[in-house]
Amino acid sequence: MVTKSSLKIALLGSLFVGVILSPLHLLSDTSNPLGPVSPDQNAEKLFQSIPAELQNLDYAIYTSNKNYDTERFNFNKRFNVFPHAIFTPTNAQEVAFVLKSLKKNKLDFAIRSGGHCYEPASLSTGFIIDLRNFKTIQPDVKNEEVYIGAGVESGAVIEALGKLDYAIPTGTCPSVGIAGLALGGGIGPLVRSFGLTCDSIKSISFINANGELMEVTEKSHPDLFWALRGAGNGSFGIVLGFTFKMYAVPKASYLELTFGDSWDTKVSAKVLKTWQTWAETLPESINTQLQLRYVNGKSFIKVVALKVGPDKCTEWEKAFSELKPDVKTYGERYLDTALRWAQTPTQPFQKGKSKILMKPITYDVIETAVNYFENLEETEQKFDVAYDFEALGGAVVKGDSAFYPRKAFGWWHMEFYWDDEVESPHSLWCINEFFTDINFHTSKYSYANNVDYDLTKNWLEAYYGDNVNRLIEIKTKYDPENIFHWRQSIPTKGMR
Ligand SMILES: Cc1cc2nc3c(=O)[nH]c(=O)nc-3n(C[C@H](O)[C@H](O)[C@H](O)COP(=O)(O)OP(=O)(O)OC[C@H]3O[C@@H](n4cnc5c(N)ncnc54)[C@H](O)[C@@H]3O)c2cc1C
User: Fold this and answer.
1) Structure pTM?
2) Structural domains of the chain, ranges and CATH numbers in brackets
3) What are 384-403's pLDDT values in tens digits?
4) Of 274, 383, 367, which is closest to residue 320 (Cα–Cα)?
5) How far apart are CA 207 and CA 71, in angstroms?
6) Model confidence pLDDT, tens digit, residues 350-387
7) Among 49, 245, 393, 476, which lies 20 to 30 A Cα-Cα from 11?
8) Strand duo 127-130 + 109-112: pairing
9) Whose CA is nearest to atom 3 of ligand 1?
10) Could you tell me if 449 and 469 are in contact, meaning their C-beta atoms sit under 8 angstroms apart?
11) 128 touches ligand 1 (CB under 6 Å)
12) How many angstroms does the Cα of residue 11 sit away from the middle of ligand 1?
């Protein structure tokens, strides 16, 4: 529970650590005529400055509400932002009402579902429209499809469908919102078998810039349907829910390879090199991740794989047996396998960066990466690090949507986690330093769902490649006044 006094400490701390946490910095991201809220301001005065029709809604959290100080934070506690109010509508009419009022009064807002954005794109010093109450999961086994509300977490989807021996492709962390995941792509343990999360979308329930409810499908609005699947986060409108195609996955096996009890830089380099070659040869039924990690002061490397179907994953033998791994295999119900893959970070402060790799990384970069982990152990750093590689290919290549790097080899995501806010400047400096070392030797593409505000130039091309101009056309058609915006949203024509 965050108390008023701890808020003041957090605020002072944020001023101390500078640009990243400063609410003033975040304010410069917006043009909110109401100005910023600080914990010292009079809540009643602030409340009176909110348009009359938005006061006293029973689906709003105002600064005077007891839970304001917890609800204003996202999953990543690095962002210390004070919105004027958080709206938690329960139906399409309420979403439309709030949106129309904010638009009429020219007030800034952000859209939030699961709150797992890597940067504060779903927070605002104006208002937040939070879709947490859109919690429906309605499977239709006969037609092999499922309606999922924007406020549902990925883990709840895995569980509800897994119990029926069905699945849609989701990500690794169960508390990530299905909405943000699907709108930015969605990479996880079924990605090579069934594609990205967005590739299974059949229709999208959507509130447009005029506050009108639309059903967006390939047939009804092919341009918007294309854009929302890979570039849909907070740029075109508010998504209320999705109908996804779902897949029968009664069985899947899980494989885990580890390589000794203590860190060995040379072995780790060989494992990473071998994994890259192996990942390129796999059938679509096998999905794999290489984990390069530093946790509680110890570095390790691990290969995990999920194979769809009743057979155990034995395909590792030819590639890895020379490296003498410790092997664990489990053949079981998909639901149990997915739970083995699932992971939730426990430290409150985070920073993520990514590369979408069009081809495997070179041996020089492999060496840079593994040497880095040796160094982390030696210098006893206080943060945890996950530099995970996820194989793409397979079904991803067949999809057609705003997710640009369809032919990519893999997704390299780099995450730092730490416990104490005072560690923020050092942790941020460390991840940036590593990224600078590898940046120009890997790929010019980053994953749109790894939002990274350090990308100050060419971030549109980094996320969307050659799709940028088409996305700007579609943005200009559906949101010409740029109502839906955040620091890295799709601009309208003439804004660049
Ligand atoms: C711990 C962790 C693990 C992750 N693991 C994976 C993974 O395995 N695979 C993967 O692909 N990604 C992963 N991600 C990235 C994740 O997919 C993105 O951060 C995603 O955007 C989060 O969605 P959200 O709804 O939780 O976030 P939010 O913070 O609520 O929203 C993220 C963005 O989407 C917009 N948005 C949210 N809801 C809506 C809506 N209803 N309509 C329109 N726009 C909306 C927001 O405005 C914001 O721009 C991970 C992130 C974290 C923090």
Assistant:
1) 0.93
2) 4-130 (3.30.43.10), 137-248+464-478 (3.30.465.10), 251-439 (3.40.462.20)
3) 999 999 999 999 999 999 99
4) 274
5) 24
6) 999 999 999 999 999 999 999 999 999 999 999 999 99
7) 49
8) parallel
9) 173
10) no
11) no
12) 25
